[in-house]
Amino acid sequence: MSDDQPIKILFGTMTGNAEELANDLEEKLGEAGFSAEVADAAEYDVANLKNEKKLAIVISTWGEGDPPDDAEEFCFDLYDGKAGDLPGVEFSVCSLGDSSYDDFCGCGRKVEEALVKAGAKKILDRADLDVDFEDGYEEWANKFIATLKG
After folding, report:
1. Contact, 69 vs 15, CB < 8 A?
2. pLDDT in tens, 11-20
3. In which band, very low, low, confident or very high, does the pLDDT at 2 lie, cut at 50, 70 and 90?
4. Chain centre to alpha carbon of residue 80
5. What predicted TM-score, i.e. pTM, was given to this entire model?
6. Which CATH number fits the domain that encloses residue 45?
7. Could you give the C-alpha distances from 47 to 68, 75, 99, in angstroms and in order?
8. Cα distance between residue 45 and residue 140, in whole Å
9. Which is it for strands 127-129 and 54-60: parallel, antiparallel or unpaired?
């Protein structure tokens, strides 16, 4: 695998916000000179994570810390360790949620914990973003790109 492997951006969404941000991140990365590709967690097999080098996950939390419906299989497989060992993966999570719920951004937190447990390296702290997420997302995206640039 070469170093010019695209950065994988996975999203899990209920209302479309996470998908919108994933596509925006792909655009930002392109402007910064990186190649990136967006994939819907609903159509992504966790077994493929071992083939990724750089990974951004933009995922919303539904209800009490649950994954979005379409991303349930991806998340539960990840939580169950079905991705295997991921020592070659560097990642960051952008988590969308609603702070009026007890388990605010619970899905994003669990995804991050599962990746770390699998040996993946967190290169930037998770962003837990509330309903009004635009500013927090911009900050996270800019930090993610700056981190990749080294």
Report:
1. no
2. 999 999 999 9
3. very low
4. 17
5. 0.95
6. 3.40.50.360
7. 20, 12, 32
8. 25
9. unpaired
For residue 2 the two structure tokens come to: 């070469």
User: What Rg, from alpha-carbon coordinates, does the chain have?
Assistant: 14
Task: Please enumerate in sequence order all residues whose Cβ is within 8 A of that of 117, keeping only pairs 6 or more positions apart, or say none.
Answer: 81
pLDDT at 3 over 70: no
- Give domain status of residue 139, yes or no: yes
The amino acid at residue 97 is G
Q: How would residue 32 be classed by pLDDT, with cut points 50, 70 and 90?
A: very high
In a domain, 1, yes or no: no
In a domain, 43, yes or no: yes
Q: How far is CA 134 from CA 56, 70, 103, 116, 139, in A?
A: 17, 23, 21, 26, 9
- As a whole number, mean pLDDT of residues 75-86 equals 98
Which residues are paired to 121 by β-bridges? 90
- List for the chain the helix, strand, coil content (%; round to 5): 40, 20, 35
Find the mean pLDDT for residues 111-118. Answer: 98
Q: What's the burial of 87, exposed, middle or buried (CB within 10 Å: 0-12/13-18/19+)?
A: exposed
Mean pLDDT of 116-135: 97
